[in-house]
Design a protein that fits this description.
Layout (H helix, E strand, L loop, with lengths): L1 E5 L14 H24 L2 E6 L11 H13 L4 E4 L19 E3 L5 E4 L13 E5 L10 H4 L7 E7 L1 E3 L9 E3 L10 E5 L5 E4 L5 E4 L15 E8 L4 E8 L5 E7 L6 H15 L6 E7 L1 E3 L6 H9 L4 E6 L2 E3 L2 H5 L4 H10 L6 H15 L6
Parallel strand pairs: 1-2, 2-3, 3-4, 6-7, 7-10, 8-9, 10-12, 15-16, 16-18, 17-19
Antiparallel strand pairs: 1-13, 5-6, 11-12, 13-14
Helix pairs in contact: 1-2, 7-8
The chain binds manganese (II) ion.
The site of manganese (II) ion has 7 residues, from loops.
Length: about 375
Amino acid sequence: MKIIHCADLHLDSKMTANLTKEKAKIRKAELLNTFINMVRFASENDVKVIIIAGDLYDTKNISVTAKNTVLDEMVKHAEIDFYYLRGNHDSESLLEGVQIPKNLKLFGENWISYVANHESGIQQRGSEIVITGIELTSENHNSIYDTLNLNPAQFNIVVLHGQESLHKAENDTWRISIRELKNKGIDYLALGHVHEYKKGTIDSRGMYCYPGCLEGRGFDECGEHGFVLLDIDEERKSFTTQLIPMAYRSLYTVEVDISDCMSTSDISDRIGNCLDGASYDKKSLLKIVLTGDTDIECEKNIELLQKEYEDDYFFLKVCDESGFKVDYEEFQFDESLKGEFVRNVMSENAITEEDKAKIIRYGIQLLMGEKEL
Ligand SMILES: [Mn+2]
């Protein structure tokens, strides 16, 4: 049986951190459309189950569109069972006043187990896939390890939403101890909460996995995003997993070392080389980070660089994290105003080295005739 494991879709995220209102609106629609695409993939590839391991929505106030779209997709695809376990961002409101579709299975504050694809008759042969989950609360998060009871003869998928770690934490509801889940008969632990793809082993039998979010939203969610596809051989109790990229757009942080550049034009060439080498899709969102230390006399106009490249991608911003290097020996015996200025700043003991470099940089820029800094 094929099963999709997704999490952290954060539908209805504001998306305005980097984007204009108009682009944020487009991006919001794309997030929702990627959910539709995932369900379409499931339908076309004979996937029987979609597990949503929390944070389907980003906020409590869900738009009518986002709510309707998710429920309508479920109703339209009666051949797929949806297992939805709520995360720390989800609230009751998705299900308020709506008729729960027959193929939507929910979890609660106590462990609940479902036999996957129950109607198919597979369970009669004693080779069921059982999906078990619990929504963490401040009351239950310490006791879930003792109350979990699985039949080791079955193929066991356990669903949880929280941060994996070795130990549990008394005061942290959203912490999951992998160590305490050892030897419980788990084959696959379907997790949500961590926004990038991550997997590891629980014990000699089982593994845990975070699919990461379905679409990257900010530059802390760079790179490839999608869902995990499990292909389970119920008879042999063996399975494979695979990350299927599904995101419509990707985000990338591109570091560009500008150490020996002397002008905006030099820096632009350097950026151009990096972008050409990586060949990012035009749909991408890019953050160019300038690094390294330039000469204090380097002429550098970030706005111009931004303008030069921003139309080539859906979104691009240039962040200057480069510093300056001051060749003090060069100014030691310089009799010009510049030399005098540098020596004055250098002799100030109350100023940090980093600040000295900045002050010297600004002073030199002014002396060189740059009108606005
Ligand atoms: Mn979460």
